[in-house]
């Protein structure tokens, strides 16, 4: 049970929305535009989670840690943004239990924030089109702070915008980046096991709790 919670911070990709089907389409359009082979959804699923810059680099190098050519990266960035903006919510879906969870927390008057490594200019239209934008008092995107999750910066900025103490914010996420950011910011953290954690089991990162569905979360907040 989580006590003394004044706000809840939600990760986006892999926690609220299964967005990889559309991200993979944008990645493969980028690959086609650059005369590179398609990478496919399965690989993209393991590459998402550290922001667009890392995703593009991983796609260009077809690897998790490869070094991409700077000139190729410069060509790829605006193309990827354009391709993803064109299909940000075609095949993406809300995970089961998300709408009920957000509704229940909002009804209790808890302020909610979305804290994602995705650029805000891409996250905002996704939240709107998938129909959950109204639940969030603020959106912190990947470019809003100098360092991405697992750095604490984005969570601290969300808490500041909500006017709450960071240690009284519950972080909810799907990846080790979310757990790390929560630990670095001093926030309690709940995790879902179904998202994008680079192919690893989220339990390895020792969140305070793992919930099979976000529908279970409201009952865990005192
Ligand atoms: O764009 C990404 O890397 C994914 O972002 P998120 O899981 O932090 O929402
Ligand atoms: Mg995520």
TrEMBL record:
It is an enzyme of class 3 (hydrolase). Signal peptide: none annotated. It comes from the Bacteria. GO terms for biological process: carbohydrate metabolic process; DNA repair; glycolate biosynthetic process. Gene3D superfamilies: HAD superfamily/HAD-like, Putative phosphatase, domain 2. Keywords: Carbohydrate metabolism, Hydrolase, Magnesium, Metal-binding. Its cofactor is Mg(2+). Its EC number is 3.1.3.18. Specifically catalyzes the dephosphorylation of 2-phosphoglycolate. Is involved in the dissimilation of the intracellular 2-phosphoglycolate formed during the DNA repair of 3'-phosphoglycolate ends, a major class of DNA lesions induced by oxidative stress. Belongs to the HAD-like hydrolase superfamily. CbbY/CbbZ/Gph/YieH family. This is Phosphoglycolate phosphatase. It comes from Plasticicumulans acidivorans.
């Amino acid at each position: 049970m989580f006590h003394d919670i004044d706000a809840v911070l939600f990760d986006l990709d892999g926690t609220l929305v299964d967005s990889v089907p559309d991200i993979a389409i944008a990645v493969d359009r980028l690959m086609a535009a650059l005369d590179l082979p398609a990478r496919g959804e399965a690989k993209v699923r393991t590459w998402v989670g550290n922001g667009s810059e890392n995703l593009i680099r991983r796609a260009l190098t077809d690897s998790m840690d490869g070094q991409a050519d700077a000139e190729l990266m410069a060509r790829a960035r605006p193309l990827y943004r354009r391709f993803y903006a064109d299909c940000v919510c075609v095949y993406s879906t809300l995970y089961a239990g998300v709408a009920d969870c957000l509704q229940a927390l909002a009804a209790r008057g808890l302020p909610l924030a979305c804290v994602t490594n995705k650029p805000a200019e891409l996250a905002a239209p996704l939240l709107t089109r998938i129909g959950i934008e109204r639940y969030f008092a603020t959106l912190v995107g990947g470019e809003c702070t100098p360092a991405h999750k697992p750095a604490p910066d984005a969570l601290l900025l969300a808490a500041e915008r909500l006017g709450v103490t960071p240690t009284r914010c519950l972080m909810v996420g799907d990846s080790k980046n979310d757990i790390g950011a929560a630990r670095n910011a001093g926030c309690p953290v709940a995790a879902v096991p179904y998202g994008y954690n680079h192919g690893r089991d989220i339990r390895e990162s020792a969140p305070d709790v793992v919930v099979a569905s976000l529908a279970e979360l409201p009952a865990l907040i005192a």
